[in-house]
Design goal:
This protein is mainly α. It is about 80% helix and about 0% strand. The protein is built from nine helices and no strands.
Length: about 325
């Protein structure tokens, strides 16, 4: 008898839970599944998070582009500082001083080379005249030698041969003197030409230093100009990337989704009242029925399409409490 009453109490508890589920507008299977499923609020949160993450790759790309642009701007700034240091006014002044010094040397040696070049035509003329005298003296000696040889072959007198030999000796002395004059003029000319070459070489070296320093100065200023332009471009690119990143990360204002109010048809139909109590003649609902009705009413008033697992667990707990109370009463009556 007691077992039968206990089973009836358990069935009543399950019926209360199912009734609460029906009042809330959900199927009994949904109510049972709600015990193991995630809460509705968490599911909505996850859904909204999943929908919100659709723009995450774009935001990350914009942020990465911004970081790269910032790194490029910092690198351009470092290059600009290095270019400014290399082309500082002090270093440019040093280069200008070197250019001025070599320019002074260049002007001096060019002037000296021109001065040493002036006598070259006259000195060359002296060489040419000395060469002509030497050639004439050499030809004289050669002619006298030929006459002497002929006189000997012809059997000329000793006096004639002696005279020719004397003339040959005089011609040879003349030839030697002309040869010395020629060598002297040639050495003077060559020495003067070497001096001219020396000063011209010094002028070329000074000019090379000047050109090198000018090229160095222009290169430093060119590098500075390029570094400044690169930094300006990097700053512009960073500003654009920053604006794009800020736009990507700025929250968009969206309208909240409209909730559909439960229709009047969702309200549970009235149930037939059981027979009146023998004692009072009126229907008196039990405490468990009142509690279930109150809970169901609360669920219906929330407008939720599916109660959370916590709510259903509360309903089940109320049912189990009723079952425990009924069981205790059976034991006491026993």
């Amino acid at each position: 008898m007691n077992d039968i009453l206990a089973r009836r109490a358990r069935r009543a508890t399950v019926g209360i839970a199912l009734s609460a589920a029906l009042v809330a507008g959900i199927a009994p299977a949904t109510a049972i599944a709600a015990e193991t499923s995630s809460p509705t609020g968490a599911a909505v949160s996850q859904t909204s998070t999943a929908n919100g993450n659709s723009g995450a790759p774009q935001t990350e790309d914009a942020a990465a582009t911004k970081e790269k642009a910032y790194a490029a701007m910092q690198e351009a700034l470092k290059n600009l500082e290095a270019a400014k240091d290399a082309a500082s006014p002090e270093k440019l002044a040093e280069i200008d001083d070197d250019i001025a010094a070599f320019q002074e040397i260049y002007d001096m040696v060019v002037t000296e080379a021109a001065k040493r070049r002036e006598p070259l035509p006259a000195m060359q003329a002296n060489v040419d005249a000395a060469q002509a005298k030497y050639d004439e003296a050499h030809n004289r000696t050669s002619g006298l030698q030929a006459e002497l040889n002929k006189a000997i072959d012809d059997g000329a007198s000793n006096e004639t041969i002696k005279q020719l030999r004397s003339e040959i000796m005089s011609a040879e002395r003349r030839e030697k003197s002309c040869e010395d004059d020629l060598h002297h003029c040639q050495r003077r000319l060559e020495s003067q030409e070497r001096q001219v070459q020396y000063f011209e070489s010094e002028a070329e070296e000074a000019k090379a230093h000047i050109d090198e320093d000018i090229a160095k100065r222009n290169a430093l200023l060119g590098d500075l100009e390029k570094a400044q332009a690169a930094y300006d471009d990097a700053c512009k690119a960073y500003e654009e990337a920053k604006a794009a990143a800020d736009k990507a990360t700025s929250p968009e204002i969206t309208k909240p989704a409209e909730t559909t109010k439960p229709s009047s048809s969702a309200q549970p139909a009235e149930t037939a009242q059981p027979a009146s109590s023998p004692a009072t003649g009126k229907y008196a609902p039990s405490s468990s029925t009142k509690q279930a009705d109150t809970t169901a009413g609360k669920l219906a008033n929330t407008g939720d399409a599916a109660p959370s697992a916590i709510t259903l667990a509360g309903i089940a707990a109320a049912g189990f409490e009723i079952t425990a109370t009924a069981t205790r009463r059976l034991k006491n009556s026993k």
